[in-house]
Design a protein that fits this description.
Two copies of one chain form a homodimer. Chain A is of the alpha+beta class. Chain A has two domains: 169 residues, Thermophilic metalloprotease (M29) (Thermophilic metalloprotease-like, 3-Layer(aba) Sandwich); 190 residues, no CATH class. Chain A contains eleven helices and 21 strands. In chain A, strands 15-14-11-6-5-19-20-21 form an eight-stranded antiparallel β-sheet. A five-stranded antiparallel β-sheet of chain A has the order 7-10-16-17-18, with helices on one face. In chain A, strands 2-1-3-4 form a four-stranded parallel β-sheet, sandwiched between helices. In chain A, β12 and β13 form a beta hairpin. The longest helix of chain A has 22 residues. The model of chain A has no long low-confidence stretch (mean pLDDT 94). Chains A and B meet through α2, β2, α3 and α4 of A and α2, β2, α3 and α4 of B.
Chain lengths: 399, 399
């Protein structure tokens, strides 16, 4: 089945990431260009006794044809069976594996960004519901490809860029360890500990300060912090993103104040790159968005519903992870977010708060992370009494 | 968007084949390896005002992993959302475009043929329901690819084989005419005329005689013959297969007697080739199946349900079509069947009979055509009084 490196990623995703069980249906979300990885996941999952592996290939060129030619008023339409499939996967207690890493960098650069912003595919709102209901054991892993490698390492020739991307992806996935599973157990243990200490302090707010950033993010009274070490409603443990280096919570969507400057570019799933992003918040809402590139696409996104302009997540990343030290910008949020602390527009995670705060967590059809962390970012916790407690200084935990 | 020849096939499929209307959802069934054609259909359909183009890519390598590794008892499982999507497309009065032509010849040759026979994907039983309910306007067209070209023209080098396949596919699609639409109007007119004359004779049975073949196929009292010129329940005309050269009916599934020898190889959608097929029928059922290759896969198929071993279709092809004269074996049933008269195991077409015979039409989750026609095949109609009337002699209509 082609390059054995895909099999090693697939094995990690199936065994340690999603933790696929015998008899499960496995939904695989891949893009055209990620066939080898999808087939390796199928092989691994069937080998573990999966009942069915349902690979859905997303084709960004078909989406491009839509943005270019479809009637304007239809651009936010999603066929009902897209969401129904996902909800059924949840009802049947299926597993899910998705691949990240662009297959078509720059493909949407020349498109009308407002039209592009109306079409969120391959993201669909039911993802948030299934995640919150914790009915599927799932993971996402990076899938190296030549187009992606060329974007990340433009100065290398194609083959060298591709090999370099593989080397770095295997490193951050800890596949260069003798026992990657044990390495992940150890790192996840550290992250779970940090999350527990943060939860224990019950801060009322966080204050984030750094170059271009002076932001206060209010927290919810019953909010807890978590590492990406999840359990389904049936107690099935899974790691939703590999690699993961973050601890995160869902904040109070009405109490974000101040301004932030993104410290890394962010990339929509369809390839639009937003560089030089700055955002100003008032009473929880993003009231001003500027960027060197891609600002229109982002403005269009945050206008899609009431919650899209508010925060659903704040996440802290220490300097002990493997992604930050590489200095590489992967142009892939799920990797880049794990290099640096970040916040996310859109839907939050109801499972992070107590019942009394469930309806206060931000609700939206979208979820978009952007990185604001660096070693120059200081994070301070503010208690209900106004006490200021150092949390993260120069990328080191202070708790 | 790449090779303009794909755009010409897509335009024919969207405009003349499926007859896509503004506001319609268009389901596209493609295989991995047919991306260029799928994107061209998206471009054409969105250009005509389609609401959404939903491309589903089938990956035969994922299926191969399943046949190799999945638990035996799961091999006939199909996730419920596969059928639900198709039924919803019908309820929403969507359009459908599918591509034929293998992308992976020989991929399943080394697999356990009994296991392979239990997995009918990408075929799903709801296709039959939606076709019978006539709720979608649909078509299937050939999609040239390099792997397919190599199978069809093994003696040519890759590039020459690919160009030869394109030339022949464009010829049989009448894309080499100044006005392909007008050429199709003319040919369809001839076929509709032949079908009308056959229907008018109300034969009780057909007798087919040729080398290796002596078969009597009983017909249903209210059965009519049709060319592949369909109308939806809403009166939307569409040509379900392009190219098409056949007239066909659904016979009485209990009154097939005798034996047949296939005159061309037939290919399962997954690439299994059945050569040298002979079948003996008693009281409508295939009671003996032999073949030089692929016999086990076919035996497994006809055992899948009661109707799978009975006939759902008998189709006659004259020698005026464009496929037969080429002498090419395309290893693609939807092309090869239009070179020669054929019969099909499995589900029939309820819309070809009156209400009183609806329940008599063969019912099955599968439908598999195989070619029994040649210029040496004689077809004779037998009336209720036992009169014998020549229908097709040396490939020429006698009616």
């Amino acid at each position: 089945m082609g390059d054995p490196r895909y099999s090693r990623i697939a094995e990690l995703a199936v065994v340690r990431g999603a933790n696929v069980q015998p008899g499960q249906i496995v939904g695989v979300a891949a893009s055209v260009g990620q066939e080898e990885a999808a087939r390796a996941v199928a092989e691994s999952a069937y080998g573990r006794g999966a009942k069915f592996v349902d690979v859905m290939y997303f084709d960004p060129w078909v989406k491009r044809a839509r943005i270019l030619h479809a009637p304007e008023e239809t651009l936010d339409f999603v066929p009902p069976w897209y969401g129904q499939r996902l909800l059924a996967l949840g009802e049947l207690r299926g597993a899910r594996v998705s691949f990240n890493g662009t297959v078509a960098p720059g493909l949407t650069d020349d498109l009308d960004q407002a039209r592009l912003g109306r079409d969120q595919l391959p993201f669909i709102r039911e993802v948030g519901q299934v995640v919150n209901e914790r009915t599927t054991n799932w993971t996402g892993v990076p899938c190296p490809s030549r187009p992606w490698a060329k974007l990340v390492f433009p100065d290398l020739d194609e083959e060298a860029a591709y090999e370099r991307l593989w080397t770095e992806v295997e490193h951050v996935l800890r596949l260069d360890e003798d026992d990657p599973n044990a390495a992940w157990e150890e790192r996840i243990g550290v992250l779970v500990g940090s999350a527990a200490r943060l939860s224990g302090r019950r801060f009322d707010a966080l204050h984030l300060e750094g170059p271009g950033t002076d932001l206060t993010v209010g927290l919810l009274p019953s909010g807890t912090w978590m590492a990406a070490d999840f359990e389904t409603v049936d107690g099935l443990r899974h790691l939703p993103n590999l690699p993961t280096e973050e601890v995160f919570t869902s904040p109070d969507p009405t109490r974000t104040e101040g301004h932030v400057a993104a410290t890394r570019p962010l990339v929509f799933r369809d390839g639009t790159i937003i560089r030089g992003l700055t955002v100003r918040f008032e009473e929880g809402r993003a009231v001003q968005i500027d960027a060197e590139t891609g600002a229109d696409a982002l403005r269009s996104l945050v206008a899609m519903d009431e919650g899209a302009s508010r925060l659903g997540e704040v996440a802290l990343v220490d300097r002990e992870g493997r992604i930050g030290p590489l200095g590489t910008i992967f142009y892939e949020t799920l990797l880049d977010e794990n290099a640096a602390s970040h916040i996310a527009f859109g839907g939050g995670f109801g499972f992070l708060v107590g019942d009394e705060d469930k309806t206060r967590v931000n609700s939206s059809a979208t979820h978009l992370d952007f990185m604001i962390g660096s070693n120059e970012l200081s994070v301070t916790g503010i208690t209900g009494d106004g006490e200021r407690v150092p949390v993260l200084v120069e990328g080191r935990w202070q708790l």
